[in-house]
Design goal:
Number of helices: 11
Radius of gyration: 20 Å
CATH architecture of the largest domain: 3-Layer(aba) Sandwich
Number of domains: 2
Helix content: 40-55%
Number of strands: 11
CATH superfamily of the largest domain: NAD(P)-binding Rossmann-like Domain
Strand content: 5-15%
Shape: globular
Length: 315
């Protein structure tokens, strides 16, 4: 089965393509220019083109293929993003694909009152990013309308080589701003950090391409919020241990949750509920097994930085 990937040169896309290659799948990937040298593999057929060009889709898709849609432009206005989503579905339907797997985000939930956020939780996005991503989801589901199977994955805060999550925290500690990190930890305390390794996200995307669905279109959350150390205090501790940055001797006062929630509200944050966890129970109940343990993946990511492979910003 051929696996087609859009957004293949982005942060998650790179990891997904490498995983597909490791698993032995033939891959066809869309790129606007020449692919990065470290992403050239015999099994990957890079198609130079544009998502807005029907001719690109004609070269990219084939009957029975599975499509991973990871492409997203932060500069794209919502109306254009929705139109592109509909065009993707029409191209997929015309080519007779078997399944579309779309990568979204938990940002579509926005401000929630639920302590446990599930796929059934009502979405109330408060910022442009969350609203646009939700509009894309709805456009995909409405346009698919039973013509082929589709699955939507909503990851939490993804970290890993090539990403931006944790880059500032690492930079502050390495750059001598340990006091700032100390104060940030005091503010956020044991609030859930919502981090999830990119390896887990890529593996979940592949799983949704393979596993039987209970409906023509389904939505899944992927997170590591059930990991006890996935909170700001423990993440900060692990960062310090791996970077050999001593802890400060100052006591660490943990500010009340209400204070933090009020501050987040005033700053216009999408989700101000510090008690909320994004539950991965649905995908785990279907048999998905995480490929990495959260703390081990976090420590390895930090070591990559420490030993000369600094994480770089990416999609």
């Amino acid at each position: 089965m051929t696996m087609v990937v859009t957004g293949a040169t982005g942060f998650i896309g790179r990891h997904l393509v490498r995983l597909l290659v490791q698993e032995g799948y033939p891959v066809r990937a869309l790129t606007r220019g020449e692919p990065p040298s470290d992403m050239v593999f015999p099994q990957v057929d890079w198609i130079v083109g544009d998502m807005a060009d029907p001719a690109s889709w004609a070269r990219l898709l084939s009957p029975g293929c599975t499509v991973f849609n990871l492409a997203y432009s932060v500069s794209n206005v919502a109306s254009n993003a929705v139109s592109t989503a509909r065009e993707i579905v029409e191209a997929c339907a015309s080519s007779g694909i078997s399944r579309l797997v779309h990568c979204s985000t938990v940002s579509v939930y926005g401000r929630v009152s639920d302590a446990v956020v599930t796929e059934a939780t009502e979405c109330q996005p408060r910022n442009a990013y969350g609203r646009t991503k939700l509009l894309i989801e709805k456009a995909l589901v409405d346009t698919v309308a039973g013509r082929f199977e589709s699955a939507i994955l909503r990851p939490s805060n993804v970290f890993g080589d090539g990403g931006v999550a944790l880059v500032k925290e690492i930079g502050d500690l390495v750059g001598g701003a340990a006091l700032l990190s100390h104060l940030r930890t005091s503010l956020f305390g044991q609030r859930h950090a919502h981090f999830v390794p990119v390896e887990t996200v890529a593996s979940a995307l592949l799983y949704l391409a393979q596993t039987p669905l209970n409906a023509q279109s389904e939505i899944f959350i992927i997170s590591d919020d059930d990991e006890p150390v996935n909170n700001f205090i423990d993440v900060q501790r692990i960062l310090r241990e791996e970077l050999s940055v001593p802890g400060l001797t100052l006591p660490l006062p943990i500010l009340p949750r209400g204070f933090l929630e009020a501050l987040l509200y005033m700053k216009g944050r999408a989700n101000v509920n510090t008690r909320a966890v994004y539950s991965p129970a649905k995908i785990l109940s279907r048999g998905f097994v995480r490929p990495v343990v959260f703390e081990q993946a976090l420590r390895q990511y930090i070591r990559n930085y420490k030993f000369g492979q600094p994480p770089e910003g990416g999609k």
